[in-house]
């Protein structure tokens, strides 16, 4: 039999051999700068988020912890407490669906600890709030269970949470129903009474605003329909955006072309407000005012008149625009009311129609080859006799009205 001294010597010799071998062989599973975060995340204590499904083969430590949490042999109070903590962890991860499952499982334990039950109810309500779940927001779906020894405060807390969530989501009718459920249990609860008054106030205001919006919408629609009828009655032709008149082999004297364009007349043709902020309208005297665009191709400039009365002539506006104060881009001072030529373009026939500046707008808009695009008539303005004017007109077919 070997002595203790001899055993110690043998043991030391074995350790020396092991240390020598350890120095020579590198540990294959060691952490590195690249993988240490990934490896730490596999350890339950350091995990940032838990996997959606816990596979005992892949995550034996997690499976063991979960079995402890859901151990049915433990007292109900401990099980409910563990499920509450589990729900809180999910809540911190913003995994509200799983948090609700955990809180609900805790409530189903029907433990005798009223404080734990109250926290489970309140936390579940908060999780539902973050999800905005309609099921939770329906008080008629609330099934109140009375656990042995549980205070009414737990149910009141749930009702208060439900009402508060509905208020945040502006579901005032549901908030009132939650308040009523809570007040059945405690008619003098101050918070529920205040919340009910606030919800009722907001509900009445929302209903009032909805009525006003409906009346306004109906009025605007009526005005638009009246405006459309007035446009159609004047024989003015509107084009929808990107719409062009249908080609026809008929002559200009044939009225069927404008008739076909009129068949497509609807509210979509009055959309200049989208681009300019202005739209055609009828004043109290029944006079129509149009947003009109003047184009100066020689200088690549434009002028916009937001309300051009149909009874006004072009000369009325040109006199104001090119009177004493001339635009800065007219460096040669060529643009004067008596020195200008005015045209509208027929995109279908690729021709220009010359307009007499003294003619009222309505007369031009009623011309059979004039089509109002996007709710805003546009006109080309050139300096009479200028080199640019002669070149511009030489490249296009020009028709004098």
TrEMBL record:
<dbReference type="GO" id="GO:0005829">
    <property type="term" value="C:cytosol"/>
</dbReference>
<dbReference type="InterPro" id="IPR011990">
    <property type="entry name" value="TPR-like_helical_dom_sf"/>
</dbReference>
<dbReference type="Pfam" id="PF18972">
    <property type="entry name" value="Wheel"/>
</dbReference>
<feature type="compositionally biased region" description="Basic and acidic residues">
    <location>
        <begin position="247"/>
        <end position="257"/>
    </location>
</feature>
<dbReference type="GO" id="GO:0051879">
    <property type="term" value="F:Hsp90 protein binding"/>
</dbReference>
<keyword id="KW-0677">Repeat</keyword>
<dbReference type="InterPro" id="IPR019734">
    <property type="entry name" value="TPR_rpt"/>
</dbReference>
<comment type="similarity">
    <text>Belongs to the TTC4 family.</text>
</comment>
<keyword id="KW-0802">TPR repeat</keyword>
<feature type="region of interest" description="Disordered">
    <location>
        <begin position="240"/>
        <end position="261"/>
    </location>
</feature>
<protein>
    <recommendedName>
        <fullName>Cns1/TTC4 wheel domain-containing protein</fullName>
    </recommendedName>
</protein>
<dbReference type="GO" id="GO:0005634">
    <property type="term" value="C:nucleus"/>
</dbReference>
<dbReference type="InterPro" id="IPR044059">
    <property type="entry name" value="Csn1/TTC4_wheel"/>
</dbReference>
<dbReference type="GO" id="GO:0030544">
    <property type="term" value="F:Hsp70 protein binding"/>
</dbReference>
<feature type="domain" description="Cns1/TTC4 wheel">
    <location>
        <begin position="283"/>
        <end position="392"/>
    </location>
</feature>
<dbReference type="GO" id="GO:0006457">
    <property type="term" value="P:protein folding"/>
</dbReference>
């Amino acid at each position: 039999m070997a002595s203790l001294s001899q055993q110690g010597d043998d043991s030391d010799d074995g350790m020396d051999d092991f240390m020598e071998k350890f120095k020579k062989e590198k540990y294959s599973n060691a952490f590195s700068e690249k993988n240490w975060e990934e490896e730490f995340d596999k350890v339950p204590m350091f995990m940032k988020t838990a996997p959606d499904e816990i596979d005992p083969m892949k995550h034996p430590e997690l499976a063991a912890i979960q079995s402890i949490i859901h151990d049915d042999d433990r007292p109900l109070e401990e099980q409910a407490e563990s499920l509450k903590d589990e729900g809180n962890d999910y809540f911190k991860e913003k995994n509200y669906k799983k948090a609700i499952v955990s809180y609900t499982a805790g409530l189903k334990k029907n433990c005798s600890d009223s404080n734990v039950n109250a926290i489970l109810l309140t936390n579940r309500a908060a999780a539902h709030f973050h999800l905005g779940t309609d099921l939770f927001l329906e008080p008629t779906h609330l099934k109140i269970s009375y656990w042995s020894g549980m205070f009414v405060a737990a149910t009141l807390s749930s009702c208060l949470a439900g009402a508060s969530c509905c208020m945040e989501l502006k579901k005032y009718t549901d908030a009132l129903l939650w308040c009523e459920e809570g007040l059945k249990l405690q008619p003098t609860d101050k918070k529920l009474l205040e919340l009910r008054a606030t919800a009722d106030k907001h509900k009445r205001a929302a209903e009032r605003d909805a009525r006003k919006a409906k009346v306004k919408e109906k009025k605007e629609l009526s005005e638009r329909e009246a405006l459309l009828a007035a446009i159609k009655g004047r024989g003015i032709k509107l084009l929808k955006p990107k719409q062009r008149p249908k080609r026809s082999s008929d002559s200009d004297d044939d009225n069927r072309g404008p008739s076909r364009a009129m068949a497509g007349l609807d509210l979509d043709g009055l959309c200049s407000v989208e681009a300019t902020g202005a739209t055609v309208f009828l004043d109290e005297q029944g006079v129509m005012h149009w947003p009109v665009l003047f184009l100066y191709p020689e200088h690549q400039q434009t002028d916009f008149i937001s309300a051009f009365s149909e009874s006004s002539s072009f000369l009325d506006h040109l006199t104001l625009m090119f009177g004493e104060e001339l635009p800065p881009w007219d460096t040669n001072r060529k643009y004067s009311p008596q020195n200008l030529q005015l045209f509208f373009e027929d995109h279908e026939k690729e021709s220009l129609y010359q307009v007499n500046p003294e003619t009222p707008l309505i007369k031009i808009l009623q011309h059979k080859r004039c089509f109002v695009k996007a709710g805003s008539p546009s006109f080309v303005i050139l300096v009479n006799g200028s080199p640019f004017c002669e070149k511009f007109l030489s490249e296009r077919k020009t028709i004098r009205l």
